[in-house]
Specification:
- This protein is an alpha+beta fold.
- Helix content is 33%, strand content 27%.
- A 5-stranded antiparallel sheet has the order 11-10-9-8-12, with no helix packed on it. It has a 3-stranded antiparallel sheet with strand order 1-2-3.
- α4 packs antiparallel against α7.
- The radius of gyration is 23 Å and the shape is globular.
- About 2% of the residues have low confidence.
Length: 305
Amino acid sequence: MDCFGPFYVKEGRKELKRYGLLLTCLCSRAVHIELLDDMTTDAFINALRAFIALRGNVRQLRSDQGTNFVGARREFLEAVKEMDQESLKELGCEFVMNTPSASHMGGAWERHIRTIRSVLTSILDQSSRRLDSSSLRTYLYEVMAIINSRPLTTHLLNDPTGPQPLTPNHILTMKSSIVLSPPGKFVKEDLYLRKRWRRVQYLTEEFWSRWKKEYLLNLQQREKWNKTKRNAKINDIVIIKDENTPRNEWKLAKVTQVYPSEDGHVRKIQLLISDSELNDTGKRVNKQTYLERPIHKTVTLLEAE
């Protein structure tokens, strides 16, 4: 877990600071974001208890040595001394802290902080003063749903034409459906309307379009061609880069044909995707579609080997 911020919100005529607490599950790679009123130990413990009340008990907590984390750890240790041995066995939670001035030891959650904070900060620096605390909390939850919808790997089902991405949301909710955005088109002018929910949805769409690009770049970094890279191969599962993809949806496809150039490198591939459409009875059925795309418009998620 780690904190980020501050963000400025408007409460009446006052401008107040707010912070975010990001918790990352090292098993499912799911994230959870809670809003903090300040960086005190009390605010952190309340946010942590809210997280545990929603998600369940925690076996181990890992963090850097922020003052609020150190203060919380001290309070927990004092409370533990008052508990009997049977209660301690049921608690079973370990608090692990990194070495001071070694944020790189954070690993997975520090990486999440970097990708999330860079996009959130650029958006909220210009727009957070048009949100109140309630709207900012809703916005952080929408961001959490977007991040937890990212594909981790794929299920290879009996029907290979319709691979379904495994996401942290599947593990958390045990549901295969995605979190849909509310109906309507949200534009920049919504920031200046009195309907605060439209402000939140516009900012959420902004986060989706910008964070998605950074996430796909992290999945497949394209460095200078100093050495030969692996060519795309038949039966690879890829993500299609599409600017018009709705929020929380990821277009997956299977490589069915590769077209090597004269130098042996593959720059064009044929993809098989499974689209859904309504038939005459109003039932949604899958339809197979073949597309040709350049290799730089895809990101390999699962290699054929």
